Every structure is written in structure tokens, then in C-alpha cells.
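LOG
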Amino acid sequence: MNVFKRAVLAISFVALLGASPAASKPAASAKEVMSRFESAINARDKAGVDALVYWGTADAWSRDMTEAALGMFEAETITSARLAPLDSSSKVTFKAPSGVKYGPSIAPVYRMVLQYKHGPGVKVDEGSLTIGTKNGAWYVVAIAVVK
């Protein structure tokens, strides 16, 4: 097998495995999860973004909702990120018409406030996600089924 074919095969293998620095091990600090999230978003690394989320008891519906929220950021380029205190909506729970109760997958600790470029004529826009810690590791909080 020539060198070119080996290189293509190796690159394809890595792509199939979804190798991502974000997926290698959980973030050890709030700042690390924020930095890795920003890097994964700007690299358009969806698998890397998903690896930073604590899915916990997320069911299909709540995972889709979390993915939709993440998708808004995945379409943008983050220009800056900072940690901020939680706001009043950070620990909200709600009951779906099906009777299932949803809320954060883990207890939120900080908001990760992200500024990003957004479309023609808009220089900067801002959004936020909550992050929390579980077993000493830091994650982006997902929407999940709660008791």
C-alpha cells in the first residue's frame, strides 16, 4: 500500500473513532470545561462538544432539546467566554404534558457566558449555558429527567 493510501486510511480511521481532545478525559475545572467548549465549538467538533455534556438521565426528548440549544452555538464562532454567577432560571424544572419532569442533569454551579459573531450586521451576540461538577469533573449541564 502506498504512502498516500496509508495516510488516507489513517485519517479515515481517526475520523471514524471521533477522536477529539475534548473526549479524552473530563475537564478538571470550570475554566477548563469553558476553554474546551470554546475550542470544540470553534473547531466545529460536534463530538467534542457532546463529550463535554453530562447527559445523566436525559431521555430522547431532553437530549434533542439539549442538542438544539448546543446547535445554536455550534453554528457560530465564539469570540470570548467567561464564568458568571447563576441566574434565577438556572435550576428551573418543568413538567411536560406527558407528566415527565425535566430539569438540569447535574446541579449547576456557574453560567458560561459566551460572546460570538453572528450574521451580517451583528458584530457580537451573547448566550449562556450552565456548567456543573460531578465526581470531581466539570461538564456542560444537559436537560434531563428528574424526580
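LOG (cont.) second protein
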Amino acid sequence: MARNPILDLSLNQVMRSEIALSLQVLKIHTVGALLYAWRNPKNQRNIEQIFDSPEQARHALCTCSAWLGVVTPAIANPVPAWWLGDAPAAEGFSAVVLES
């Protein structure tokens, strides 16, 4: 079975730079590494502290999982933007549009 290319997508391409850079300090550079790290409860707490809120971190993980086809329940309340699409373009990064 072929590896899904989304797993190799750099976090710099999909997240605000300050979040992506903070995750890189934890040796989390790709969507796949983020999903793998999230499986450990200790890592979950560290990852949640990087985002603006724990809910925002969970939303990011649910979104990354959804790109792989994992079905997750909807979140009832709005979550502040963690993705690049709504953040001001900075440092030459642009949002990635994923098409199926």
C-alpha cells in the first residue's frame, strides 16, 4: 500500500508559522509526525500548549485526520484560526490547497 502524501506535508505549509516552528522544536515537522505524536497523552499536553487553546490543537488534529479520510464529529463552537488560509501571509509562505 502506498503512503499517503499528506503525511509528508510540512507543517509550515498548512499552519501559522509560529505554531509550526514551535512544533519543530518538539521534532514534529510534518502532518504525519504530528498525528503520530498526538497518539501519546504526554505529547498531547505539550502540543496543546503550543496552540492558542487545547480546542484549537484538537481542531488542527481533527482536520489533519480528515485529510486522510478519518471521520470525526463536528465541533460545536468556533475555533480561532491555526491554519494559513485566514492568517496574514508572512515570510513568503502561502496556503496549500488540497484537492481530491
